[in-house]
Amino acid sequence: MSRVIAIRAVAFGVVAAVALAAAAPSGATAPAADPGVSATQIVIGTTTPLTGPASPGYKDVAPAAQAYFNYVNANGGINGRKIKYVVKDDQYNPAKTKSATSELILRDKVFAIFGALGTPTHSAVVADINRRGIPDIFVNTGSSNFDNPRRYPTTFPYFPSYVVEAKTMAFYIQGDAALNAKKKCLFYQDGEFGDNAAVGFNAAGMTFDTTVSYFSGQQVAPFTSQITKMKSAGCELVVFFGVTSATAQMLGTAAKAAFKPTWMITSVGSDPSVLGASLGSSANALLNGIYSPSFLVPIQDSSNPFVSQMKVIADKNNLPWNFYTYYGINTAYVLSQALKAAGPNLTRQGLINALQTKAATFRSAAIVPLVFSARTHQGLQGYYMGQYNGSGQLVRLTSYVITATSASTGTAKKTTYRALAPTPKLLP
Amino acid sequence: MMQFVDYLLGGIGSGAIIALMALALVLTWRATRVVNFAQVGQAMFTTFIALSIQTATGSWYVALIGAIIAGAILGVIIQYLVLGPVKRMDTSGAIIATFGVLIALQAAAGMIWGGDSQAYPQPFGNSAITLFGHEWPLSVYDLVVIGFAAVLVVGLTLIFTRTSLGLAMRATAFNPEVARLSGVRVSRTLTIGWGLAGIVGAVAGVLVAPTSTISPNSFDILLVFAFTAAVIGGLDSLVGAVSMGIFTGLLLSVVSGYSDSSNAPVAALVLLALNLLLKPEGIFGHNSARSV
Amino acid sequence: MRNLMRLPGARLVLHAVVVIVIWLVMVQVNDRVDPLMNYYIALVAMYATAMFGMVILVGLSGQVSLGNGALMAIGGYLFALTTLNWQTVPILGVPMNGIWAMVFAAVGGVVFGLLIGVLGARLRGPYLAGLTLGIAVGIPAIANRFPDLLGGETGLQLTVPYPEGGYAALDAGFEDQFAEVAPSGEALLPSADASLAPEELLTADNFPSADATVAPEDLLTADTFPSADATVAPGDLLTADNFPSADASASAGDLLTPDSFPSGAASLSPDLGGTDISGVDPTGTSDIDLGFILERWQASLAVAVACIVAFVALNLVRGRQGRVWKAVRDDPVAAAVSGISPAGSKVSAFVVSSLFASLAGAVFAQILSYVGPGAFGLGLSLSLLVGVVLGGRSSLVGAVIGAVLLVWLPQFVLSLSEDRGWDEQVTNNAPNLIYGLLVVLVVLIAPGGLMGSMQTLVAKVTKR
Questions:
Q1: Which residues, in sequence order, are CB contacts of B1 under 8 Å at separation 6+?
Q2: Residue C406 domain-assigned?
Q3: CA-based, 20 to 30 A from C396: which of A94, B162, B264, C189?
Q4: CA A134, CA A85: separation in Å to the nearest integer?
Q5: Which residue, among C55, C189, C451, would best test binding to A if mutated, counting the most A CBs under 10 Å from its CB?
């Protein structure tokens, strides 16, 4: 009996010691009205997959934003404050996102969450972030769920939702008689891609002859049966809603099956540099003629001052020059402008107000309007239609942009929009 | 009907890959009675090595040979360092040990080659074969994959049935103590078993990479399907693993073709549950899978 | 002492006392630590709840399970569905949703445990591993098949049933504010044209197209980066002010200076007047001072559930049923001869472990305020096995140690690789590498888990 008790005692001792060690007080609070902001520093945080199955591509976003913040800090910061960016790896697991976000809020005392990535992951924390009134800036997802200022008053998604993208595609197809006459098929990833695409195409009154799907993670096996199904159905225009790794798999499998429809691929599914790495030498030939909506200046357009300057930041930090890096720098640039616009007395409410009232004055590589307001927190609400040429470059097809809302009704419309020039030296 | 045949043929290529991975699992199981979760990690790691060799030399064949050597070495190292010391462990302990190896291998690959998906060059033509006026969803490359699988199964079967090494391996798998008493060098046969499994896994990795991409986690889902195939095939049977692997590939293809693709993993689970319910020892199993 | 223990019910009382003492201690600890520690305690208690079941299944009954994470999903989803879809009548002002939801989760756990147990009791180790691996992958995938009910891959958000003063009320406040101004969110979504107002803000004259007008010296080039060695005073760096305002982009720069806006906390434009969300006013709301510490509530709940489960587990493990499980594990034939049904014993172990996993899943759903297939994937199932193997698989204290390890190890390996100045892809992957190697190392050094090693150590010391 005594031995058992001794073991118990030792065991509880260890548990208690570990618990106490972990309980050691950590991190001093910033002496300001809002946590995470002091006279010299702003602490912001993010959760993103740096490792794990979802990390390819996505892992480049946060380091790119970090590179931009470093550049701003080296040039004096924003209103005299340097940005401290805390990046937590959540491996795209909602449970880990919850832990990481709790640590960001309770230990790192972040002023704002910026660029949290993923729909399921962010769904697990968005209510808690909002409950605490923490600005939740530029959620990296195309899901339309987070644009809901009544429910999530502090959450601001940046890029146009998949619903908007579907409406954009439908608008373009319906406006092009030759495309519209083709036998149309839809190929989507199960889950939010498929759901959002359905909402958008339904609203636009567009129907498909055949719809096929794949499940996330299936990319490892070729999409033979899906391609076979579409081929035997005689699909002439295939609209694809999925991630880039699946696009690569789809194009490869289709080439093998000599299935050559006209492709139209979502912007998140068509990063040319990732496709190039996945498809190897045949990438440019496979990409040639593919339609893809986009909202940023084409990444290969080196004559554009946004692209060329952002590439300088990427090169300086040895970051791969791909869509994710480009996008990460771009959102960090917009956030920096918002922080600056919020004024020297930086508060959370001030940042939210700045986003809601001054978004139209923020410059960015986006060539569609940024329309945050108190009523909608969906930032970009439009696309232009592009098409890949034989050298793997996206060429803008529409001089206008196609704008739409994420609502389940209402179609897209043409809008003329001229982007603002970048600020000097790309500093906020 | 034609569509059904097309779906079937479309599944053969991935079926052969699942079969090879299942074969590797069966080899480690036969050697050490351990379900090797790290198998897909080893295959991923050696495929990255092959990709590096391919980039350096430009030869697909040199890369394949490099992967095979690396696969054998890696298998032996893991057996020697991890499974050797813990072979007295229960199933849970051994599974967790190989799971730890899997996490470490994936992290190491991420450190060395980065976390991005990379293309693996296509060595042979990958366009559909046209025959009798119909385009079959089958390429020369698929045939090569199937050929490799067939050669490996036949070769391994010959080793197991026609050589003294094979006899020793079978004896060790059946009962290590008795084998030891009969003069079999048990630890050597175990090591060879893991080396062979490493080779088979490495070949599977190099073969699957060109049809997809290679990243530290890109083979994860293969583990589930290969494990399913190996269990249904009876875990001890080489032929069982291969035939059930191909069958799993066909099933996934047909289910994805006729219904929603997200039904495919559920179909695999149903197949597994039915099999364990009706014939727990596996279609090709010899030993009793039931303990009581 | 020994004689005292022979009294009927003595063991029950002893177990109750032990559990109540632990609970009282934890309640005191809970009230004294900061919210993040509350959160960790909640996680540890949740994992411990699931791992008590793993100890019974893996340690005592000698079976293997790769699927207990999926059983947690059962509990989590049942909890979420009940709280989301079923409004109960409060009893004495206490909303009963949470309690009913826990009951449903428990019943679901028992039912699924029975199903899997009947399937699995007949199988040997690796075949059982195969079945449970299939369950670990297959059950979360069911959520994708029924997106309308189960939320698909995105998952379901739930408002956890809190005691009064919880954030449910605060949430309702948000809704009310906006309900007054915007009865229909959709109708008020501004058309893209209106919100653009291109005439006012971005006419071609003021802001010519980006391509044309940036002066070359305004471009960011590699030279703009302050070089590391040269100590250039910040004042010497090129800033917007250094550039003549002749070109359009410099005047564009004027727009962005803080002076052009009256103050940082600018009010919303008049046309939106009523929709000012300042009522939310996060400014005055410090993070932890919401009058109700969510993490503390979660920890109290998780600890209470863990203590109840621990009490049940203690009685089972140290009672007759524990001896039955061990007897079947050690020698099924001998057990059968002495009148014990080996299959029945194994099924009962599955049912108990599934019940505990399901309750843990319900607690997990409350900690996350969310359920989704990604949170209950194969990774969770394998972590449970990692925890129980590392902690010690045949001891309930080992389960607690394992639960602490599951929460603490990831923090520890992260801290080992932080701020080392390593290359980025090394820093990102180092925690996983160390974690994997540590798991292997502990299995090699302490095959019986940390608890097993401690027992051996204590045995050696006391023998001397």
A1: none
A2: no
A3: A94
A4: 15
A5: C189
Alpha carbon of B283: minimum distance to chain A alpha carbons (Å): 25
Taking CA–CA distances from C386, the nearest residue in chain B reads: B96
Single out the residue of A380, A355, A357 nearest to residue A160, CA to CA: A380
State which fold the A163-294 domain adopts: Rossmann fold (3.40.50)
Contacts of A304 in chain C (CB under 8 A): 210-211
Asked whether the beta carbons of residue C66 and residue B235 sit closer than 8 angstroms, the reply is: no
Residue numbers of the domain that contains C321? 18-166+292-377
Contact by Cβ (8 Å): C351, C110? yes
Domain ranges of chain A: 41-160+300-380, 163-294
Give domain status of residue C202, yes or no. no
Among C21, C55, C149, C153, most A C-beta atoms within 10 A, so best to mutate, is C153
Q: Does the A41-160+300-380 domain belong in CATH 3.30.450.20?
A: no
- Nearest CB neighbour to C443, from listed B35, B100, B102: B100
Q: How many angstroms separate the CA atoms of A344 and A339, rounded?
A: 9
Domain extents for chain B?
A: 2-115+140-278
Q: Which CATH class is domain B2-115+140-278?
A: mainly alpha
Q: Which of B58, B47, B76 is nearest to B203 (CA)?
A: B47
Name every chain A residue with its beta carbon within 8 A of the beta carbon of B218: 53, 219-220
- C12-C16-C17 Cα angle (round to 5): 120
Two structure tokens written together for A98: 């919850």
Whether chain A has a CB inside 8 Å of the CB on B115: the answer is yes
- What is the number of structural domains in chain C? 1
Residue type, B226: A
Tell me, what amino acid is at C97?
N
| Cβ <8 Å between C253 and A424 | yes
Residues β-bridged to residue B119: B213
Beta carbons of B290 and C336 less than 8 Å apart: no
* Residue C231, in any domain of the structure: no
Residues of chain C numbered 98-117 and touching chain A (CB < 8 Å): none
Whether the complex's predicted ipTM surpasses the cut of 0.90: no
Structure tokens at B151: 């050669």
Shared fold status for A41-160+300-380 and A163-294: yes
Nearest chain C Cα to B220, which residue? C378
Q: pLDDT tens string for chain C (464 positions)?
A: 556 666 667 888 888 999 999 999 999 898 888 999 999 999 999 999 999 999 999 989 888 888 999 999 999 999 999 888 776 666 665 666 778 888 889 999 999 999 988 888 778 777 888 888 888 888 888 887 787 888 888 889 887 666 554 443 333 333 333 333 333 333 333 333 333 333 333 223 333 334 434 555 665 655 555 444 433 344 433 333 433 333 333 333 332 223 322 233 333 333 332 333 333 333 333 343 455 688 888 899 999 999 999 999 999 998 889 999 999 888 888 888 888 888 899 999 999 999 999 999 999 999 999 999 989 988 899 999 999 989 988 889 999 999 999 999 888 888 888 777 788 888 889 989 999 999 998 888 888 888 888 888 888 888 76
